[in-house]
Design goal:
Layout: E1 6-9, H1 18-23, E2 26-29, H2 44-54, H3 63-76, E3 82-86, E4 92-98, E5 103-104, E6 122-133, H4 139-144, E7 151-153, H5 158-165, H6 179-202, H7 206-218, E8 222-225, E9 236-239, E10 249-255, E11 260-261, H8 263-270, E12 277-283, E13 286-287, H9 289-296, E14 301-304, H10 306-316, H11 322-327
Parallel strand pairs: 1-3, 10-12, 11-13, 12-14
Antiparallel strand pairs: 1-7, 2-6, 3-4, 4-6, 5-6, 8-9, 9-10
Helix pairs in contact: 2-3, 8-9
């Protein structure tokens, strides 16, 4: 089918637009209060302004995301493009071809009058070409169209959807699907990125010391956090007893930055550690080779970088109190695992 662009679209968190999609032969998006998108200039900044004008309480980080969805739907989707719509209602993957230009249908708002739902008033007409069960596709393809965005371009597995449209057979069974491992890796990396980003943005500065102290407590230590301000190079003191008499005493310095920590910082911490004490430096970033080399032969000095900190968070998360689970909301999920070889 040439260089056709393949898009993915969702019909709302609870499939609110599913009926319109199928009965009206359209794909549609909400944010109806923005109005007719064709009246907004083909300029992303204009779309951001329009989103803020219609929804003034929108969080700053969400404005460019919403504006991007609206802009692409009105200006980047072209006649002849394909849409992949994974329906939550019938659990099928619907493939349709765009047959006309963008349109705004204010009459759709009447269907939602008196409700809190957002009318799906911005539409693109489509001809639904084929519907296939989700089991027809690889795990990687299903993961890509499970994007959290309302509208997105399908890139990695576009050829698989095009082949399915042309009549290709279903993918191999799960135990022969090479994309399963890729999906698991992607999910795990997304979680790790989320943890680091949240810690860097929500707990920057002194609050990060409080978080590390809490993590140490879940590991069985009693901790004392230095007040904000000059701390002499020690942010947290940890011990096995509440009075700090029982060894080992651990002196901890934390860095909530995401850059590299060099040898001078490591050496400064170690200078505050007696022979019978331990030093621990925790950073969201990484350490330079010189910093690692300095710590390598110090039996009472430990460096924890961002990746190692995430490992500890995942290991001890269930013991976190409600405050830090609220800051860092995670939930257990099951993901596919490689089958064990049978003897």
């Amino acid at each position: 089918m040439g260089d056709v662009t393949v898009w993915g679209i969702h019909a709302g968190k609870y499939a609110e637009g599913d009926a319109e999609f199928k009965k009206e032969n359209v794909v549609a998006i909400g944010w109806a209060d923005v109005g007719d998108l064709s009246k907004i200039g083909a300029d992303r900044e204009a779309y951001k302004a329009a989103v803020l004008a219609a929804y003034p309480t929108t969080k700053a980080g969400a404005v460019p995301v919403y504006a991007g969805v609206l802009y692409r739907f009105a200006h980047e989707v072209e006649e002849g493009d394909l849409f992949i719509y994974p329906s939550q209602v019938d659990r099928e993957v619907h493939i349709g071809k765009v047959t006309g230009p963008y349109a705004f249908r204010p009459e759709m708002a009447d269907k939602y009058a008196g409700t809190a739902d957002d009318p799906y008033a911005s539409v693109r007409p489509v001809k639904w070409l084929k519907s296939l069960p989700r089991t027809h596709f690889s795990q990687g393809a299903l993961y890509e169209i499970g994007s959290a965005l309302t509208l997105f371009q399908v890139k990695n597995y576009a050829d698989e959807f095009l082949s399915a449209l042309e009549g290709a057979a279903p993918v191999a069974p799960v135990d022969e699907d090479p994309t399963v491992a890729l999906v698991v890796e992607e999910i795990e990396q997304t979680t790790r990125d989320f943890i680091l980003k949240t810690l860097a943005t929500e707990l920057k500065g002194h609050p990060f010391a409080g978080f590390v102290a809490h993590l140490m407590r879940t590991m069985g230590y009693r901790t004392k956090v230095a007040p904000p301000g000059p701390d002499g190079g020690i942010d947290i003191t940890a011990s096995k007893d509440s009075l700090g008499f029982e060894g080992p005493i651990v002196k901890i310095q934390v860095k909530s930055t995401e850059g590299k920590v060099g040898a001078p910082d490591v050496q400064a911490l170690y200078g505050n550690v007696d022979n019978k004490e331990f030093g621990l430096l925790v950073t969201l970033g990484e350490y330079t080779k010189q910093a690692r080399d300095f710590a390598q032969n110090k039996h009472n000095l430990q460096l924890v970088d961002g990746a190692e900190l995430v490992d500890l968070v995942l290991e001890y998360y269930e013991a976190f109190d409600s405050k830090y689970k609220g800051v860092l909301p995670l939930r257990s999920v099951y993901v596919p695992a490689p089958k064990m070889d049978e003897d």
